[in-house]
């Protein structure tokens, strides 16, 4: 079973409540690359209110220099998330 499969049993509000308590930056993007959710730690990092981030894209929020520094991490996370179980 993929490590993220159990998350499907949680409602969006349950996920948000869980992610809001985590001190690590968390951002969820849709297939178009737009933020659908960020936790407070991510908003603090971006120095913007939560509502100013959702619906926008990482280049809009982070700028090119920061995006270049974290882009490889994002790509690795996406690859792991989409990996098919063996």
CA-based shape? globular
Instruction: Kindly name the structural category.
Output: mainly alpha
Query: What is the number of beta strands?
Result: 2
User: What is the number of independent domains?
Assistant: 1
Question: Largest sheet at a glance?
Answer: 2 strands, antiparallel
CATH topology: Beta-Lactamase
Mean pLDDT: 80
Architecture (CATH level 2) name = 2-Layer Sandwich
State the oligomer. single chain
CATH class: Alpha Beta
Beta-strand content: 5-15%
Which range best describes the helical content: under 10%, 10-25%, 25-40%, 40-55%, 55-70% or over 70%?
40-55%
Instruction: Return residue spans where pLDDT drops below 50 for at least 5 consecutive residues.
Output: none
The CATH superfamily is identified as PAS domain
> What is the terminal separation in angstroms?
9 Å
Q: How is the largest sheet built, in terms of strand order? A: 1-2
Along the chain, the helix and strand elements come as HEEHH
Round the Cα radius of gyration to an integer and report it: 14 Å
Count of helical segments?
A: 3
Task: Summarize the topology.
Elements: H1 12-20, E1 27-29, E2 35-38, H2 40-46, H3 58-82
Antiparallel strand pairs: 1-2
